[in-house]
From TrEMBL:
Name under which the protein is recorded: COG4 transport protein middle alpha-helical bundle domain-containing protein
Domain of life according to the entry: Eukaryota
Pfam family, one: COG4_m
Domain COG4 transport protein middle alpha-helical bundle: 161-449
């Protein structure tokens, strides 16, 4: 009985438990039904809101249309215009609402696709949909509150969007450890992060990745330099190599990312990337230059001013190479920055002028200028002390000082040009001007004074000559050496100026920089003018020494008569020929040996000077003579012989222009009658002859003919 009772109790408990479970399910179902009812009511409310909005706008449009028709029937023009404007406004509002609803449906669709792609692990497609959501949000920012009510969620703070960003961050972090090989992969993930709204973070992550790669690439060469244990000459090459590697690394990343950032990101990020890369370059570059300066002991430049020029030459070549590569890097980055910099932004040239790397380079440049000035002065001083004349027989007489000096000057200026710094170039050119005026020109002036005062033979001239030379010839040859040296100075200087002009125009596009260089080059031209003035002075001394011997050969002309009788004409012509031959022979003895010793242009200038002296001397004698027809004929032969003699001496050009006055004089003396002058003395505009003689001189020449009447000459219309 008790067992049956217990069984009944158990049955009741089981039944009660089942009833409780069913009741709980009913309550839960009732709650769900209540929630669904609320959601349905909310949806109906939203639909009713949209419907009411559309109904109201449609009713407004219909009302405006009715009013418009009524106004048209009553034909009140003011009412028609007002109703037409109102009708247009209501129609536009209806279109805007319709477009907004389409945007809401598009947003819900894109959001659904984003969730689907992200859940399947399709990260790239998810980023595309997230970017589309951002675009829709930006385009409809003014209506976002209304859209959020319709969609019941905010896409920009959606949980899936946060998960997507975190996944991208993790991918970037994982790829960073792979180094340069992962550049493209990291860049793509950073672009994805940029597209989903994290612009600043994406840029910083990508930039940090690039800086980490640069640090890894430079870690090995920099660690070797930081040890500072190597004292061999290779250490300076390692410094330059490491600096070059730094510039190439920064420049390559700047070039690679120009197209990327301007295409996939916004224009403002590329200048930021360049400036951050430049900051890294400043840090590492300044450290490398400090290590180099310490190795070369450039903190104390004075110690180098007692160093041999050969060792100094090596150090300055290294400094020029450092400056050249640094400035080439600056120009590359500055051009990139100028291309993408916004108007009104910081001037890029100022940005580089004030950077740490430029300040370190300026310290190097300051040391270089002092060293180069010392190198130039000492090298030219040494060249002057070792000056000697070529001992090869039959060669042009020059000494070694010009070639040695201009080799040093050209080397210094071209090295300064390699610095890619116009201030450095101008400083070295100014020092060149000073050295040329103070040392080179001073040396030539002292040598000229010694030559003119000394009448002793020198060992160098005796060793040059094949036979003993008299004192006068030694002095003449010293003048020849100076004349040739000064000519070479001018020629080398003009070549250097031409090279500077061409090279500076190619390198400088700014007019102000070009004017700065041309100003100091103008000073260099002035220095060369001083060499030319001295060249003219020496040429005059040389001419004076030669003419002092030739003047005696013209003395027979003063005693010679030009009033010849026909029966003794042959003997007089032979006497004239004897005078000419004597002059030519004496000229060859005094001057002929200089032809092989003088530079061609110097030889031609000397011949022209001698021809000018001869023509002037002959003319001064002939003005005191009297002529008959036979004497005039003999004079014409003499002048032609002398002219031909000098003309055959020059190697280029002619000297006939020097004898023009004498030719015109003999032409007048050989006229048959004074009145023939009317045929050849024409008015200024009809002249075929360039007269060197004035009208008064023509009358004086005609009066030298004994056969011509002074009355006829006086009445000539000249």
């Amino acid at each position: 009985m008790s067992q049956e009772t217990l069984s009944q109790e158990d049955m009741d408990k089981i039944l009660e438990r089942e009833i409780s479970q069913v009741t709980a399910k009913l309550v839960d179902m009732d709650q769900k039904i209540h929630i669904l009812a609320e959601q349905l009511a909310a949806k109906e409310e939203r639909q009713r809101t949209i419907f009411d909005l559309l109904t109201t706008q449609v009713w407004d449009v219909e009302t405006e249309s009715t009013d418009f028709e009524l106004s048209w029937k009553t034909f009140h023009i003011e009412d028609i215009c007002n109703n037409l404007s109102s009708f247009h406004l209501q129609s536009c509002r209806l279109e805007e609402t319709q477009q907004l609803l389409k945007t809401a449906m598009k947003t819900r669709e894109v959001l659904s696709q984003l969730r689907s792609c992200f859940s399947r692990g399709h990260l790239k497609e998810a980023v595309d949909h997230a970017s589309e959501l951002r675009r829709l949000s930006c385009e409809n920012s003014a209506q976002m509150e209304f859209l959020e009510k319709i969609l019941e969620e905010q896409p920009v703070v959606d949980e899936e969007l946060h998960s997507l960003k975190n996944s991208l961050r993790q991918y970037i972090k994982d790829s960073t450890s792979k180094g340069y090989d992962a550049v493209s992969q990291v860049y793509e993930h950073c672009v994805d992060l940029f597209r989903v709204g994290e612009e600043e973070e994406a840029f910083e992550l990508y930039l940090s990745f690039l800086l980490n790669i640069i640090q890894k690439e430079l870690s090995d060469p920099l660690s070797k330099l930081r040890q500072k244990g190597d004292t061999s000459s290779r250490f300076s090459s390692q410094c330059i190599s490491c600096l070059t590697q730094l510039y190439e690394c920064i420049a390559s990343y700047a070039d690679e990312n120009e197209g990327r950032l301007t295409k996939d990101w916004s224009e403002q990020y590329y200048p930021l990337l360049l400036k951050r890369l430049q900051s890294v370059c400043n840090e590492y570059g300044a450290e490398i230059l400090d290590i180099y300066r310490h190795f070369r002991h450039l903190e104390n430049t004075q110690s180098y001013l007692t160093t041999e020029t050969r060792q100094l030459d090596v150090v300055m070549d290294e400094m020029a190479l450092i400056s050249q590569r640094t400035n080439a890097y600056f120009h590359f980055i500055q051009n990139k920055l100028d291309k993408h910099n916004n108007p009104g932004a910081l001037e890029t040239s100022k940005f580089f002028r004030e950077c740490l790397l430029q300040r370190k380079l300026d310290e190097l440049i300051s040391a270089y200028i002092s060293m180069e000035n010392y190198f130039m002065a000492e090298s030219i001083k040494k060249a002057i002390s070792l000056d000697e004349i070529s001992k090869d027989s039959g060669t042009i007489l020059v000494s070694t000082v010009v070639d040695d000096c201009f080799f040093v000057i050209q080397k210094s200026i071209k090295r300064a040009f390699a610095f890619e710094n116009n201030d450095v170039l101008c400083a070295i050119i100014n020092e060149t001007n000073a050295v040329m005026s103070r040392q080179a020109l001073g040396f030539f002036k002292n040598r000229l004074v010694q030559t003119l005062m000394s009448q002793k033979e020198t060992n160098r001239i005796e060793s040059y000559a094949s036979k003993p030379l008299d004192k006068s010839r030694n002095v003449t040859q010293q003048l020849v050496v100076l004349l040739n040296n000064l000519h070479n100075c001018e020629e080398y200087g003009e070549r250097l100026i031409g090279w500077l002009d061409t090279a500076s125009r190619k390198r400088n596009s700014a007019a102000s920089e070009l004017e700065k260089i041309q100003s100091v080059v103008g000073d260099l031209k002035d220095a060369l003018k001083a060499f030319h003035s001295m060249w003219e002075e020496i040429l005059e001394h040389l001419k004076t020494r030669i003419t002092s011997k030739l003047v005696r050969t013209l003395e027979p002309l003063q005693q010679m008569s030009f009033i010849l009788q026909e029966d003794n004409l042959l003997g007089d012509l032979e006497a004239s020929s004897s005078f000419i031959y004597n002059f030519m022979e004496q000229f060859d003895n005094s001057v002929g040996y200089l032809e092989n010793l003088l530079i061609d242009s110097n030889w031609d200038q000397l011949i022209r000077q001698m021809a000018d002296w001869t023509a002037a001397h002959l003319e001064s004698i002939l003005w005191r003579k009297k002529f008959n027809s036979h004497g005039a004929l003999r004079l014409d032969n003499d002048i032609r012989s002398i002219t031909s003699f000098f003309n055959n001496k020059v190697k280029q050009g002619t000297v006939r222009d020097i004898f023009t006055r004498l030719f015109q004089l003999t032409m007048l003396l050989n006229l048959e009658s004074p009145t023939e002058i009317d045929d050849i003395w024409q008015r200024e505009e009809d002249k075929h002859i360039r007269w060197k003689l004035t009208a008064e001189e023509v009358r004086e020449v005609l009066s030298l003919r004994t056969e011509f009447s002074s009355e006829t000459i006086r009445h000539l219309s000249l």
